[in-house]
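User: Here's a chain of 340 residues. Predict its fold as C-alpha cells.
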Amino acid sequence: MQARLGDLATLLAGTLVGNADHLVTRIGPLETADAGTIAFLANPRYQAQLATTGAGCVIVGAAQRDAAAARGACIVCPDPYLAFARLTQWWAAQTRVRPAAGVHRTAVVEPGAWLHPAASIGAMAYVGAGARVEADAVVGPQAHVGADAIVGAGTRLAARVLLGEACRIGERGIVHGGVVIGADGFGFAPAQGHWEKIEQLGSVQIGNDVEIGANTCVDRGALDDTVLEDGVKLDNLVQIGHNVRVGAHSAFAGCVGVAGSARIGRHCTAGGGAIILGHLEIVDHVHISAATVVTRSIHKPGQYSGLFPFDDNAAWEKNAATLRNLHAMRERLRALEKKG
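Assistant: Prediction complete.
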C-alpha cells in the first residue's frame, strides 16, 4: 500500500505543505513514525513531538501549520482528528479483503430466507426462515441470524454474532465478535419463594450506522422493542437492558450498563463502567463520567459525575466510615442550629 501526499491532501480536503509526490506506506503515531508514515496531531499539548517525530507527513490544524512545516511535509485541515478518522476509513477500504459474495458451502440457510446476491454468508453461519440479508451485508463465520431477522445493506456481522429472532439492524452497521442482540431481558416475577419467568415478547430495532463492540449484549423488549437509533456507538462489554431506548448518535464506553426501560436522549455519552438505573429518562446532550451511577432522571443537558475519589486504602476506609455517619452528623447539626 502506497499513497501520494498530493492525493491524500485532496482526499481530506486539506492544504498540503511539502512534496506532493512523496509516498507514505502506513498511518502511525508520531512517536514511532518514519519517512513512510503519515501521522496526525490533534491535541496542541503534544506539539513538542513535532520537533522529534520522523514522520514523512503530519496532519495538523491551522494553529500548528508553521511548527509542522518547519520539520517537513504537513497537511493542514480544519479538524485534524476528523481528517485522521476519514483517512483510516479510506486506508481500510484499500487494504482489507472483503468477503466474497455468496453462501459458504458449510452455511445453513433455512427455506424462506431471502439473501441479496451481493450478500456474503460465511462458514458455518446460520440464517433462519423468513430472515432478510440485504445487499453487501456480511454474515461472518458461525454468526446466527434468527428467523424473520433483518440485516441491512452494507452491515457486517463478525464471527459468532447472534442476531435474534425478529430483530433488525439497519444499514452500514458494524457488529463485532461475540455480540448478542435479542437475548431475553431479565424479567421474573416473585412467586412464593421462586421466580416466574416473564416471556420477552418484543424485539430489538437498530438503526443505520450503528457500531457495537465485542461481547456486548442488547436484550429484546418484554412487550415493546428495545431501540438503538441511528449512529449509536457501543463499546465492548456494554449491557443494554430490555425496553431501553438510546437516542441517535449517543456513545457508551466499555462496561456501561443500562437497566431496563431507561430512555436516553440523542448525542449522550457515558464513560467506562457507568451505570444507568432502570425507568429513568435522560435528555439530549447529557455526558456521564466514567464509573458514575445514575440513580435519578436527568432533565438538563450537561456533564454529570458521581465518583468517590480513590485514595490509599487506610485513608479511604476512614473517609468511608465518616461518610456512613454523614446523615447523623447532619441531624445533630440541625438540632444545634435550632437550639441556637
